[in-house]
Amino acid sequence: MSDLNAFITEETIDGESDGPLSGKSVAVKDNISTKGLRTTCGSAMLEDYVPPYDATVVERLKDAGGSIAGKANMDEFGMGTTTETSAYGPTKNPVDESRVPGGSSGGSAAAVAAGEADLALGSDTGGSIRCPAAFCGVVGIKPTYGLVSRYGLVAYANSLEQIGPIAPTVEEAAELLDVVAGPDAHDGTTRDEGADSDYAGAADGDVDGLTIGVPTELVDGADEGVVDAFWDAISELEAQGATYEEVSLPSVDHAVQAYYVIAMSEASSNLARFDGVRYGKSGGYEGNWNESFASAREEGFGAEVKRRVLLGTYALSAGYHDKYYAKAQDARAWIKQDFDEAFADVDVLASPTMPVPPFELGESLDDPLQMYLADANTVPVNLANLPAISVPAGETEGLPVGLQLIGPKFGEEQIIRAASAVEQ
Ligand code: GLN
User: Fold this and answer.
1) Is the shortest distance between the CB of 312 and ligand 1 below 6 Å?
2) Cis peptide before 17, with omega less than 30 degrees from 0?
3) Which residues are known to be catalytic?
4) Residue 409 domain boundaries
5) Rounded to whole angstroms, how far apart are CA atoms 258 and 105?
6) Are 49 and 34 in contact (CB under 8 A)?
7) Which one of 213, 303, 370, 391 is least enclosed by Cβ atoms within 10 Å?
8) What is the pLDDT of residues 13-35, one digit of tens each?
9) How many domains does the chain have?
10) For the segment 401-415, what is each residue's pLDDT rounded down to a tens digit?
11) Which atom of ligand 1 is nearest to the CA of 128?
C-alpha cells in the first residue's frame, strides 16, 4: 500500500461465494462493525475494540462474494470534513497529496481513487460520502434514509445518517448499492420501498425529458472555478435532452446551523456509552466513578469530539432545549417542506457537491467554522432524509469538482440515471 494512510487496519478478509461482488475488494469505513476485525471509528477510545458481529451491510457484501480490503481511515466518529480529526493521522488525497481527501469517509474515497480497493463503503451523516467522493474524483451515493440498514454502524447522529457506496464509476456504485440496500429486521427504520429496484440497470445515461432544478441558494457563493465546472455539466445534460430551471429553497440558508445543533445533540447522547467500562479504553484512574469516566473520556476523545459532546449537551440542557434543539427541528421541517415543493415541479435537483476545492492539509483544522460552512450543500439532504449522488464533473485548478444530484425519497434510480449521463 502507498503512504496515503487510507487504512487504519490493513488486514483483509477474502470473499467466499460467487455472488455479484466476487473478485471485488471493498474498503470498509472504520465505523462499520466487522466481526473479528478491529473497528476504531478513527478514535483512540476504540483502539482495541474488536466487534463480536458483522454489520448487516458487511454480511451482505460477504454473501455477495466481496472481500474486505481493510478498515478505512475516517474523521473521529465521523466528525469532520477532511479526515484530519482521525487519531490515526490524516489521509492524503491521491489526486494531490498536499490536499485533504475530504471527510469523514476520506480513507474510503482515497482507497478507491488510488486503486487500493475496487469499491468502498462509507457513511454519510451530513456529507461524509459525497464530500470525499467529490474531493477525490470518484462517485459516492448517500441513500434515502431507511434504504440501507444501519445495524452495526457505530452511531454518530442516528436520525441523519446512512451507509452508502463509493466507487470509480456510477454503475459500480449502483452495483454495490444493489447488494447492501433493502429492509433488515435488525434496523426498524429500514423500509420496503426500493427493495426490488435495479440500481445498476438505471446507470443507462438516458436523461431525455428529465427536468433538473438548480437551487440558486446552493450555487451562489461557491468558488468561481467550481461554479464554471457545475454549469458545464448542466449544459452537457441539456445537450443530452434534459431541461433545467432555477428553483429556490429559501430554508437551506439555515441548514448548517440546524444540522450542527441536531448532529451534536444526538452525538452527545450516542457517545455517552464510551466511558471506559463497557466500551472504550479505561483511563486507568482508580478514583470514584465520575473521575474514572472523566479520565477515560479525557484521554480517549480528540478535541473535535469533545467540542461536539459539550455543545450538544448544552443544546439539550434544561432551559436551552427550546432555544436550540427545538428551533433546529423547526428548521428541519421547513427544509423538508421546501424540498417537497421543489420536487412537485422537477425530477432531480443539481448543485456543486462542495462549494470549494479540496483544502490544503492542515488549512481548516484551526478553524472549525470554516470547516462546518463547507457542508452547506450536503447537510440539507440529510436533514430532509433524501438520496443524493456525487459524480465527477471536471476540475478547477487541476483539482476534482463533484456534481451533486438530489432525488425525491427513494428516487435513487433517477439520480443514478442522471449521474451516468454526466459521466458519459
Ligand atoms: N462534516 C459533517 C460533520 O462533521 C458531516 C460528517 C458526516 O457526514 N459524518 O458532521
Assistant:
1) no
2) no
3) 29, 104, 128
4) 7-204+384-423
5) 22
6) no
7) 303
8) 988 788 999 999 999 999 999 99
9) 1
10) 999 999 999 999 999
11) 8
